[in-house]
Specification:
Radius of gyration: 22 Å
Largest sheet: none
Number of strands: 0
Number of domains: 2
Distance between the termini: 61 Å
């Protein structure tokens, strides 16, 4: 904070504001990798769809592809 350079002051302030979160992530070894992976898969659904008519259909496509449900009819082994 005592630096005369404004960009350094800005970074120091950002670190100060988020210090507890940074320390928790390091100590607990937490990663946002799973969330980023899920976001990537949702984006691929969006790209492959070429657009949805409404948000409900988009949500249904996400549930269909990522829900992990067994969608085979009874008696069919899949």
């Amino acid at each position: 904070m005592r630096s005369g350079l404004e960009p350094i002051k800005k970074v120091a302030g950002a670190i100060k504001d988020r210090l507890w979160g940074i320390l928790n992530a390091v100590v607990l070894e937490v990663s946002n990798g799973p969330a980023e992976g899920l976001n990537s898969r949702i984006k691929m659904i969006k790209v492959r769809s070429r657009g949805f008519r409404n948000k409900k259909r988009f949500a249904s496509a996400i549930y269909f592809h990522l829900g992990g449900l067994n969608l085979y009819p009874e008696g069919v082994v899949g």
